[in-house]
Amino acid sequence: MSVATSTHPSTLTVAPTGSMVTVARIYHLVVAVVGTSALTISLILSATSPVSGGAFNGIIFTLSYFTVWSNIIALIVNWMLAANPTRDGVWFRWLRMTSLVMIVITGLIYAIILAASANPCGWGVYTNFGYHYFVPWATLLGFLLFGPRPRFTWDLVPKMMAIPLVWLAYTLLHGLMTVNAPGDRCSDIALQKGVNFYPYPFINVNYDGTGAPSPLVPGLEAAGYAGVLINIVVIIILGLLMASMFVGLDRLLSRKAKPTPLGKAATEASTAA
């Protein structure tokens, strides 16, 4: 990977240059196209499924999964990088870190916890591959191969939790409502009418009628919302640790260079000079 410099000494970046710009652009474009097609097919399947409870209901429930949220954020970033592989900016840095943390957690949790009970069929095999395998690990590989970096600062570590916390709040509030949860044609599960819906067992306050969620960490469990809170704390800690890891990787792979000050930080640096 080439090293490109600019007028400010702190703007040393590891980013594609020359012919590698085209390579990076094609790479991110492939990730974006595969992921976007998986999302589109998934929404179509949800809207047309005879056990979805109607098109609108099916789409709403599909868009309620953390997997889908993380894929959407990752796809936005991949489309941005396909357009400009050397992109930078305050919003881009936040969105890039957020996408990496969310999509890698999606890939890990699916592989470790959820894959064993998954039963995709038909086009669902493709969407499952895109959501849980291709987009997560291709997005991570793209970061490692192409950068651009340095882009991450320590203040982004807590900020990247904004979207995951919004999803958690939405999911818990949605779970309090009585809804018609779509069934699953692959597993012959019918539409469930008048239920409280939680997309994952570790956030379900009454998973399998046990009165508690499925614990993310064996031994760290409790009944009802106390158990959900424990799992949320585990997820937050995992997210913060992963974000910190990406800051470290960003510095290590950019030869310990620091990102260019942007926004308020740039103003303060200019004033100090």
The helix tally amounts to 9
- Walk across the major sheet and give the strand order: 1-2
- Name the beta content range: under 5%
- What's the rounded overall pLDDT mean? 86
Q: Residue share in helices?
A: 55-70%
Low-confidence stretches: 1-12, 266-273
The major β-sheet equals: 2 strands, antiparallel
- For the termini, the CA-CA separation is 32 Å
Q: Pairing-aware structural class of the strands and helices?
A: mainly alpha
Structural domain count:
1
Counting DSSP E segments of at least 2 residues, the number of strands comes to: 4
Shape: globular
Order of helices and strands: EEHHHHHHHEEHH
**What is the gyration radius calculated from CA atoms?**
21 Å
Descriptive account of the structure:
The chain is mainly alpha-helical and 273 residues long. The chain has one domain (3-261). The chain is built from nine helices and four strands. It has helices at 19-48, 55-62, 66-83, 90-114, 123-146, 156-159, 162-176, 224-253, 263-272, and strands at 3-4, 13-14, 178-181, 192-196. A two-stranded antiparallel ribbon has the order 1-2. It has a two-stranded antiparallel sheet with strand order 3-4. Helix 1 (19-48) packs across helix 2 (55-62) and helix 1 (19-48) runs antiparallel to helix 5 (123-146). The radius of gyration is 21 Å and the shape is globular. The two termini are 32 Å apart.
